[in-house]
Design a protein that fits this description.
With about 325 residues, the protein is mainly β. It folds into 2 domains: about 1-15 and about 165-280, Jelly Rolls (Sandwich), CATH 2.60.120; about 20-35 and about 60-160 and about 280-315, Jelly Rolls. The protein contains 1 helix and 26 strands. A 7-stranded antiparallel sheet has the order 1-20-17-22-15-12-11, with no helix packed on it. A hairpin with a 2-residue loop joins β23 (about 280-285) and β24 (about 285-290). It is globular.
């Protein structure tokens, strides 16, 4: 096997990502049946409520105490892209927006100058389990966009383009493939400029099938995260060479390795790609700016304004058990699916 410039690394929590991304949190929880409060019917005794992240458990409460999830918390200076492939997420924010989305839906928020939101995972099924699979990707904003007004957008499953390749498929959240274009990103996003080559996609690679990724620009980073399956092969276009990727591994790719060959079972991967912003990054929890001084300014602004305040009766709101997928936008528009 020849030497090559690709880097294979283990997936942890969260997943490490290259510029322009900040990280990706992957959640897979085998939640049980729900109770009348949309929490786990089996109870939460013995859990570290408010900080339940034990990876040895089949499911976690995260920062939730009654319903799993993340009660009200602030963000500023970057974007959150939340993909829920299975289960549901109940969203509420300081803009007055609310949503219940999942089963393939995507939420994209430009946090910009700052907002608060909550993300709870309601266990709506009382007669069967409530599995959840969710990706939350943090995409950085360039300095010129870190103080823009927050922006809230929904991509419903029925609208998200899927590129079919034999029995394999690529679900496009951002970017393009084979002349298929994803839905438009928010206007201030780094992904809104095609020259930044941003791709966010989920690859479902059927057993034994091949998938060729397009040529990558000289400046762009491309990572794949192999989260379901057994093994697959990466082959080189410039040499008679191949690499094996195992479930639970990620890989940084360049143009030498663009073809994926499926193993004995379905392989599922997250594909993140983009040109780097190449600016300093200063982070403190949910605040991402360019300098420590800007972080302090953002924290002071949050203490002073609460990023618009919290208009909801509780910090972990959930919607009615019988409520379907919907979005109530800050301007009052209501969309129900």
């Amino acid at each position: 096997m020849a030497n090559n410039p690709i880097e294979i690394f283990p997936l942890g929590f969260p997943w490490n990502t290259p510029d322009p991304f900040l990280f990706c949190a992957y959640h897979y929880d085998q939640y049980p049946e729900g109770n009348n409060d949309l929490g786990p019917a089996t109870g939460v005794s013995g859990r570290a409520l408010g900080s339940d992240f034990d990876p040895n458990n089949a499911w976690r409460m995260y920062h939730g105490k009654t319903v799993p999830g993340f009660p009200a918390h602030p963000h500023c200076g970057f974007e959150t892209i939340t993909i829920v492939t299975e289960g549901l997420c109940d969203h509420s924010d300081s803009l007055g927006a609310a949503a219940r989305f999942g089963q393939g839906d995507v939420q994209w928020i430009t946090t910009g100058d700052g907002l608060q939101h909550s993300e709870m995972f309601p266990l709506v099924n009382q007669d069967k389990p409530n599995p959840l699979e969710l990706f939350q990707i943090w995409l950085n904003l360039p300095a010129k966009s870190k103080r823009v007004s927050p922006y809230f957008k929904m991509y419903w499953k029925e609208e998200v383009p899927v590129v079919q390749k034999g029995n394999s498929s690529v679900t496009l959240v951002a970017g393009s493939l084979d002349d298929v274009q994803a839905l438009s990103p928010p206007p201030d996003s780094w992904a809104a400029a095609p020259e930044n080559e941003v791709v966010v996609a989920i690859i479902d690679l059927a057993a034994g099938e091949q998938l060729e990724l397009p040529q990558l620009g000289d400046m762009a980073n491309r990572n794949l995260y192999f989260f379901e399956g057994e093994s697959l092969t990466l082959t080189s276009h410039s040499a008679d060479d191949s690499q094996t990727l195992m479930k639970g591994q990620g890989v940084s790719l360049n143009n030498e390795y663009r073809t994926l060959v499926g193993g004995n079972v379905l392989s599922r991967l997250l594909w993140l790609q983009g040109c780097p912003i190449n600016e300093p990054v200063a982070k403190y929890g949910p605040f991402v700016m360019n300098t420590p001084e800007e972080i302090q300014q953002a924290m002071n602004r949050f203490r002073r304004t609460q990023f618009g305040g919290w208009p909801w009766d509780q910090h972990d709101p959930v919607h009615r058990p019988d409520k379907g997928r919907f979005a109530q936008f800050p301007d009052g528009e209501l969309v129900e699916k």
